[in-house]
Amino acid sequence: MTTAQPVSHQPTAHTTAHRTTSALLYLSGVTVSFDGFKALNNLSLLIEPGEMRAIIGPNGAGKTTMMDVITGKTRPDEGQVVFDGQADLTKLDEAHIATLGIGRKFQKPTVFESHTVRDNLLLALAGMRSWYKLLGAAPTKAENDRLAEILSIIRMEAQQHMLGARLSHGQKQWLEIGMLLAQNPKLMLVDEPVAGMTDVETETTAQVLREVNKSHSVVVVEHDMSFVRALGVKVTVLHEGSMLAEGSLDQVSADPRVVEVYLGR
Amino acid sequence: MMTRFLWTGMGRNLRLFVLLVLAVGIVVPALNLLMPKTSPFYVPAYALQLIGKYLCYASLALAVDLVWGFCGILTLGHAAFFALGGYCMGMYLMRQIGARGVYGNPILPDFMVFLNYPELPWFWHGFNHFWFAAPMVVIVPGVLALALGWFAFRSRVTGVYLSIITQAMTFALLLAFFRNDMGFGGNNGMTDFKDILGYSVQADTTRAVLCFASALALAIFLIISGAIIGSRFGTALIAVRDAESRMRFLGYRAETYKLFVFVLSAAMAGIAGALYVPQVGIINPSEFAPGNSIEAVLWVAVGGRGTLIGPVIGAFIVNFAKTYLTGALPEVWLFALGALFIVVTLFLPKGIVGLWAQIRARNLAKKATAA
Predict the structure, then answer these.
(1) Three-state secondary structure call for residue B350
(2) Which domains, and CATH codes, for chain A?
């Protein structure tokens, strides 16, 4: 048995509640322990609507666990996680959280290999998630238009009928970004988007994310400092499951505690 | 919506194949009934029964493929659903015997008289009516699949663990149905059937109709499966098979997709079992044997996992080989089965249908280079 259990099946149930915070994402006192090891230790974090935030930290700082908590993959032992001022994410499962408007891009691109590029995007497209409706539904005109739009943004019109398995690594990355656009989440969680990329590709990805940030809030987890600098956004440094410092990259890199964590004593 | 649902998924090949299945279901019984016994086109009764049996196996294979090939659930217990459907039909047929049994009891089947049952157990009531037994054929396997799937998929049990659970389920049922006090005839099961819907099960016309009904059921299952796989539900289902957690993060409730297909597949297996029992004339606990479920998986592997036509072809080829070899060279059959498994795993990862597609692709490539 895993800890994750579906709890609620009504995505609309939480939209009527009063807002408790103006923040888009609000984490307070979140603690997660695995067999006594505290992966997250009393972590608090605020993401404002429209914000882009970079999260950095050494290995084992709890970056991925934090993503898992936000997307419902891991249940915190303590603490509050509130999305959009209303939804308590600690009580919802992954599918529900996704339909509320949180999208996640994994470090390793995962596209559906036995489906075409077009079907991959269709699956990601916001809206239709009910299994019985999908049995009889054809893509609507609006859906087809949106697909065409996304295919042109990610420049994959020519490959739209190619199977996911036959795409190159770079094409898969682009398709994933297209899938995130199709999902159109309020908040995008992006895990190490430039791992294994060249400097030029890294710079392009930073541009793409800044572009995406115009209409979506974004949280980027990254190791690559030059990439974080290129993003030019507020930085949160995690260490041993807690927040160590927050501010511009220059501010946090001047912080002696951050230097100590990164360089060792 | 319904016509769209039923037609979009069906490719040209599948439509032709459905017609072929229906043609077999009409021509074979017709040749048995209409041709004089001396004619070279006459289909003897045993061959008619054999084809009918293979058609039921093909439906079981299709049911297995629907969950294994398209949903990634390697079920090693699907013969249990087949057998449960068969037992429901068996109970109906037992009640039809009435006072014609050896002991002449109008209510109690022979084995109950023999085991000194004072009265009919509660769960036998209603099975004297076809209208009651027929839905039970779907409901009993369906509810079991729903319960098993609900807990397993909700708790995210996957892969080998799920396979072992399905195998344990069929083994548990095997042991339970062996017990005399379960009320299902114990070790001997149920046999000596007389009538179905008022017609003698031994009569040629009844056998012919049963064979046709088996073909019709298979054709309907093919159409339904084709429609599901071809729909957006099917696209989502295959995506769940390939990357389940990714689908969850896209907002799909993966367990619901799996549960629907698992229950549907169990219902299909139940109907196949119910059509099988009057044709072979017996149902006993050996139908729950774990080996039966594994053989069904083998039919799918041989024919082509993840295709709709493959399991039908696989079921026919393997069972034809089994019928032939167990008759001609009984000691060779198990070795042949083992060898077949090795050959398919090593050389035909996509089964016979996959091989055909490979050859066609190669020919096309040749033509392209020649031109």
Answers:
(1) coil
(2) 19-101+185-265 (3.40.50.300), 114-184 (no CATH)
Give the helix ranges, DSSP H, for A63-187: 63-71, 94-100, 117-124, 131-136, 141-153, 169-183
Which among A98, A135, A179 is the nearest to B228, CB-wise? A135
Query: Chain B residue with minimal CA distance to A118?
Result: B235
Contact present, A134 and A126 (Cβ < 8 Å): no
Distance CA A115, CA B243 (A): 11
CA B50 to chain CA centroid, Å, is 15
What is the spatial distance between Cα A176 and Cα A182, in angstroms, rounded to a whole number? 10
- CB contact at 8 A, A199 and A140: no
Tell me the residue type at B304: G
Q: Which residues contact B257 (CB under 8 A, 6 or more apart)?
A: A131, B71, B233, B236, B237, B240
Q: Would you say the ipTM is above 0.95? A: no
Phi-psi category of residue B282: left, alpha or beta, with phi > 0 → left and psi -120 to 50 → alpha: beta
Residues with Cβ < 8 Å from B178, sequence gap 6 or more?
A: B186, B187, B285
Place of tokens 């603690």: A31
Provide block-wise average pLDDT over 10 residues at a time, chain B (371 residues).
Answer: 58 90 95 90 92 97 97 95 97 94 90 92 94 97 97 92 96 96 92 93 94 97 93 93 91 94 98 97 96 94 93 95 90 88 86 85 79 59
- Residues in A touching B260 (Cβ below 8 Å): 131
DSSP class of B285:
G
What's the predicted TM-score (pTM) here? 0.89
**DSSP bridge partners of B59:** none
CA of B306: which chain A residue's CA is closest?
Answer: A114
Every domain of chain B and the residues it spans: 2-293
How many CB pairs below 8 A link A and B? 89
Q: Return the structure tokens found at A116.
A: 């075409």
What pLDDT score was predicted for residue A11? 44
- Spacing of C-alpha A13 from chain mean position: 23
Q: Mean pLDDT score of chain A, rounded to an integer?
A: 84
Q: Does B159 touch chain A (CB under 8 A)?
A: no
Alpha-carbon separation of residue B115 from B58, B181, B183, B272, B307 (angstroms): 36, 9, 9, 30, 47
Distances, alpha carbon A18 to alpha carbons A87, B111, B191, in Å: 10, 67, 67
Checking if the pLDDT of A12 tops 60, the result is no
What pLDDT does residue B314 have?
A: 95
- Is B235 an 8 Å CB contact of chain A? yes
* pLDDT tens, residue by residue, A107-159: 777 899 999 999 999 999 878 888 888 887 788 898 999 999 889 887 788 99
Cα A225-A173-A23 angle, rounded to 5 deg: 60
Q: Looking at the predicted structure, is the pLDDT value of residue A82 above 50?
A: yes
